[in-house]
TetR/AcrR family transcriptional regulator
Amino acid sequence: MSEQPVSKRGRPGYDQRAILEIAVDAFNEFGYDATSMGVLASRLALSKSAIYHHFASKEELLELALDEALDALEGVLLEPESQTGRAIDRLAHVLRGAVKVLAANLPFVTLLLRVRGNTVVERAAVERRRAFDRAVSALVVEARDEGSLRSDIDPRIVTRLLFGMVNSIVEWYRPEGAEDPTHLADDVLAVALDGLRMLPAT
Amino acid sequence: MSEQPVSKRGRPGYDQRAILEIAVDAFNEFGYDATSMGVLASRLALSKSAIYHHFASKEELLELALDEALDALEGVLLEPESQTGRAIDRLAHVLRGAVKVLAANLPFVTLLLRVRGNTVVERAAVERRRAFDRAVSALVVEARDEGSLRSDIDPRIVTRLLFGMVNSIVEWYRPEGAEDPTHLADDVLAVALDGLRMLPAT
């Protein structure tokens, strides 16, 4: 989680960060369109003007939340282990990192995955998410070309199935549960890269 | 697709089946709660009473659509290949069958996957879907116990990751696209059971 400057304006008890987190929970629960600033204000027991003290608009809340999720995902691509070495190892590192980002930023990534591109802010987020997917897809191609991934599946299909598996984690993963993120990332890699079958297929 | 009796009542041009399919598309596009019978009527260019000629309520439309998706999925479990033989082969057959059902009934399964259990009809559908998931989870346990699946991953996590991958297909699969359902099912099995890596992990 990135550190956010804590504003001391507004009613005591809620800083900017807390308002953002409660807004993201409300967006995930009711949908962004259905969550008005009035709904948010009543959830926070604040006046609307107290929220506007911190944020110019509902869309600014959305933009900050989506940026945080995207910054975290893109950060994985910038890590040294994603940049050097064999493509298969870089791909494994990126998948592992994506699972950890998802587990550590669950509400923010959930919001990102539900965005459909209805507004300028949403379209920009969808475009950044697609660029991330393309970077992973390029790694799949590279890993296939270096001979470390099987070549009989279309890399676009592989990428979609991998993200389908990773992204579905937001539907059931609970940070307070028994499965820690590192273990979960191991499981995803075990299924996706090594497969579940004990013996090599004949 | 199951055959539905075609009612000849109502305005010419729409039988019961056509109204159901258009309703499902509308539910998927706008959400079930947001789609009123008035919205449906204007999409169909019918009066509301013409729809009520065929269906008692909006909920009946939902129930028929969810039943159709669930009947198709549960039908896979009843096929002989899901009932006899090694657990790994039965699991492979069920996964392959689930992908084909999804591809053949895309709008109906999409609706099923989005249901959250807000009404009696929705809760019944969620319960049937969970029972299907439990049947697959039991197959994963059986396949592990017979020694054909790796035993280092919790079968519940395996089942969730498998369904995460399979269910995500509704997000991008288009029946008119280049990827036919049989090929898509092969790809899912290749990723999930055999893994993407060329060489066995050390």
